[in-house]
Each structure stands twice: as C-alpha cells, then as structure tokens.
Design goal:
Layout: E1 2-7, E2 10-12, E3 18-26, E4 30-39, E5 46-51, E6 57-59, E7 67-72, E8 77-82, E9 91-100, E10 105-109, E11 113-117
Parallel strand pairs: 2-11
Antiparallel strand pairs: 1-3, 3-8, 4-5, 4-9, 5-6, 7-8, 9-10, 9-11
Length: about 120
C-alpha cells in the first residue's frame, strides 16, 4: 500500500503565504502525476494544480500567478507554494497521486490539511 501525508496547512492572514508538502511512502515503484485539490464547505472538490513526472504543470485559473506546484521525485514529495492568499482560498487541501505500486497505476489520496485565510 501507499500513504500520502500532507503538512503545512494552517491559519494565515490575507496576502500571506503558506507552503504545503505531501510525501508519498510505501510500495512505490514510480509516481506519475501528482496533484493538489481543495474543497471548501458546501462546494465541490476542485483541482488546484497538477504536475507530471517530467515537471509539466497546470494551475487552475483562480490560482495562476499566485500558486506554484513543484515536486522532488527522489523524495516522492510534491509541494504547493501559495502566495497572495485570499479568504476564498480557505479550504481543505488534499494531495493526490497516480502511483505504480507493482499492481498497475493506482490512485491515492492524502488525508487533507486545512488552510484558513482570515484576518
């Protein structure tokens, strides 16, 4: 099995910054795409940012220019650097990865970390 563990969430004032990390461990042969999703109360989960193994990135329009996704393949870790945070960025942020675990590529999720942007 594979585990994804996020860290770095918390309370920040509008305009502030946070860096989320998500480390994958377990029966990992290779990791394909790694993503960050978020879900605010009463809303559907949405894709925030995605990064391929080669480093190609995608960001949702709402976070372009403010968030940067990166990864360290040697550490099986994905990061989300969030800057110029707004109250509407408040949500539970979860990482997701497509992992070759010896039984094909399977989808894994972290438990989520709360980000609250408030003065």
């Amino acid at each position: 099995q594979v585990q994804l563990v996020e860290s770095g969430g918390g309370l920040v004032q509008p305009g502030g910054s946070l860096r989320l990390s998500c480390a994958a461990s377990g029966s990992i042969k290779s990791i394909n795409t790694m993503d960050w999703y978020r879900q605010a109360p009463g809303l559907q989960r949405e894709l925030v940012s995605s990064i391929s193994r080669a480093g190609t990135t995608i960001h949702a329009d709402a976070v372009k220019g403010r968030f940067i996704i990166s990864r360290d393949n040697a550490k099986n870790t994905v990061y989300l650097q969030m800057s110029s945070l707004k109250p509407e960025d408040s949500a539970v942020y979860s990482c997701h990865a497509e992992v070759w675990d010896g039984d094909g590529f399977n989808s894994y999720w972290g438990q989520g970390t709360q980000v609250t942007v408030s003065s």
